[in-house]
Each structure stands twice: as structure tokens, then as C-alpha cells.
Recover the amino acids of this structure.
């Protein structure tokens, strides 16, 4: 199996579903992809079943699922997105992807955004805590409890230095 084309997704190689699908169709012209949606008023569930050779029921097979709550974005876009996610997961389970990544690009972007948001929230909380310190000892205690990552954050370091001068 050749390496699937990838895109850079915030510093990480990601094989898009369209590229995994193209590679699968090239490798398995007699392959089968079936998708089954289950839609309710509040959610959409997709199941994708992929069989490498529909003339051989014993050929390699994988199933991928996706789930989403129906939101104000509406059912139509969620429907399309969830089908793509389920197919992408099944293809990944069959080995079609750059490194076996199973998450969709949307899930990866959401994960990275959530991670970035959490970091921003922590930075805000720590800079606020630094600003609330009343003594040098209180500032030192707070600083010694921070992780190396937080101590190396520019905004936190700047807040500490500013507060240190203020308390001097």
C-alpha cells in the first residue's frame, strides 16, 4: 500500500478522506462501501462498512461510526459531515491514511482548538492570580507551583516580572 497524500493540519500530516477514498478505489476496484444513517430529532449516527473485495466476503473489512447532535447548523450539513467521518474512520481502520490516524480533519481541528483555548484560559487565570498577589512571598509560592511550560509562557513571565517590580 502506498503512502496516502497528506495536508499539513496545524503542524501534523493528515490524510483527507477524499485522498484515502481515492487510494482505496485504486487498490480495490471491486471494493464495497456501504453507509447507513440513523437520524432522530436530536442526533445523527452513521455506520460505514467497507469491504476490500465484494466478490470475496472473507476479504479485509472495517466498520466506522460517527455521531453528532443536531444543532442550529441543521441536519443537512451534519448528515454529509457524519457520513464522511464514518467512511474516513473505516478507511483508516483498513490502513488508508498517513499514520493510521482515525480522527477526521474537523475533529483534529476541534481538538487542537480546544487545546489552544484551554492554554489561553490557563494563561489568563495565572496572569490574573499573579496580579492578585499581595506580597513577594505569595508571588514566589505561586511561581514555584507553575509547570515549566507555564513558566516559559511569555505572558505569564511578563506578568510575574511586572508584579515583582510593583511589589519591590
Amino acid at each position: 500500500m502506498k503512502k496516502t497524500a497528506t495536508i499539513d493540519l496545524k503542524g501534523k500530516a493528515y490524510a483527507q478522506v477524499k485522498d484515502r477514498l481515492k487510494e482505496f478505489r485504486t487498490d480495490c476496484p471491486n471494493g464495497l462501501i456501504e453507509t447507513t444513517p440513523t437520524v432522530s430529532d436530536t442526533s445523527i449516527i452513521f455506520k460505514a462498512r467497507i469491504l476490500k473485495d465484494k466478490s470475496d466476503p472473507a476479504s479485509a473489512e472495517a466498520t466506522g461510526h460517527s455521531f453528532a447532535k443536531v444543532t442550529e447548523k441543521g441536519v443537512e450539513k451534519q448528515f454529509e459531515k457524519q457520513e464522511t467521518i464514518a467512511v474516513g474512520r473505516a478507511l483508516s481502520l483498513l490502513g488508508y491514511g498517513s499514520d493510521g490516524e482515525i480522527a477526521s480533519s474537523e475533529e483534529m481541528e476541534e481538538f487542537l482548538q480546544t487545546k489552544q483555548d484551554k492554554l489561553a484560559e490557563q494563561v489568563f487565570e495565572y496572569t490574573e492570580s499573579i496580579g492578585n498577589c499581595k506580597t513577594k512571598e505569595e508571588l514566589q509560592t505561586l511561581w514555584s507551583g507553575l509547570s515549566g511550560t507555564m513558566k516559559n509562557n511569555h505572558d505569564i513571565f511578563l506578568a510575574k516580572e511586572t508584579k515583582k517590580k510593583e511589589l519591590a
Observations:
- The radius of gyration is 24 Å.
- The beta strands are 7-9, 12-14, 32-39, 43-51, 61-69.
